[in-house]
Amino acid sequence: MRGLKDKRVLVTGGASGIGAATAARFLEEGSQVWVLDRDAAGCDAIRRQLPALAGTVTADVSDLKQVQGAFAEAVRRMQGVDVLINNAGISIRHNFLDITPEEWDKVIAVNLTGVFYVAQTAARHMWQRGSGVILQTASTNGIVGQPYYADYNATKAGVIELTRTMALELAPKVRVCAVAPGYVLTPMQRAEYTDAMLDEVNRKIPLQRHAQPEEIAGLFAYLASDDAAYATGHVFTMDGGETAGGLASR
After folding, report:
1. Torsion-angle region of residue 71: left (phi > 0), alpha (psi -120 to 50) or beta?
2. d(CA 58, CA 42)
3. What is the C-alpha separation between 66 and 59, in angstroms, rounded?
4. Are 45 and 68 within 8 A, CB to CB?
5. What mean pLDDT comes out for the span 155-178?
């Protein structure tokens, strides 16, 4: 991709899944990459897996002070941040009627409040510098209804509207887009499936499979690059055809 060499990239939730694949892709593009994740063991593992990383920092995105401290450390070590991949998120599979207030608050805190904290912190830095790209992980769950993930779905819909509003307010200095993956076979996703469930879901997807994290990472790389210099304010879906049709297509 054009323009990614030597770019300074911060990836939240970068120790596993889509985040880890995205960190690896930007390293391949010649970028400097800093990973933020709340999992200290995961940070240790990704440093071993990707020794070219500029560094990692352990922080919880739902804690504003931790976010600000971690972002300041990334800026200090890389002399700035040009691209934010605002990716950290969690999900809990449960029936709507069974969601507890504590579970609701936990998912909202990470997936929406945490995205806001990181985005605002990065945007202030980029606005002052005069340029930057913020890319946020949404989901097809934020576009169409999905059972058993009411809290998660609500947060991803919120990320989409946050992205659109940020893009309007931060233009022309900072581009802001969201990526909405469909089913991606991350460790978090796989842990929620039995083998039978995985096969059942695959049969419902037109391409008959889950995405690999590396495929989503490629879209992030494109949107951060100079090739996508006119892209802002939009949600880019990559879902194997999942949302292309309605009930009759299932």
Report:
1. alpha
2. 9
3. 6
4. no
5. 98
pLDDT tens sequence across 194-242: 999 999 999 999 999 999 999 999 999 999 999 999 999 999 999 999 9
How far apart (Å, rounded) are the C-alpha atoms in residues 149 and 89? Answer: 13
Give the tokens for residue 243: 């949302």
How far apart, in whole angstroms, are the C-alpha atoms of residue 144 and residue 153? 8
Question: Two tokens at 192?
Answer: 């929620």
- The yes-or-no verdict on residue 250 having pLDDT over 70 is no
What are the structural domains of the chain?
A: 8-239 (3.40.50.720)
Enumerate residues 6+ apart whose C-beta is below 8 A from 2.
Answer: 225, 226, 227
Contact in structure between 231 and 35 (CB atoms under 8 Å): no
- Left, alpha or beta for 140 (phi > 0: left; psi -120 to 50: alpha)? alpha
Of the candidates 43, 41, 34, 40, which has an alpha carbon nearest to the alpha carbon of residue 15?
43
Residues 126 and 143: their CA atoms lie apart, in Å, by: 28
Question: Which residues are the active-site residues?
Answer: 152
pTM, two decimals, is 0.96
Q: Read off the DSSP letter of residue 248.
A: G
Distance CA 157, CA 142 (A): 4
Select from 198, 153, 201 the least CA-distant residue to 180.
153
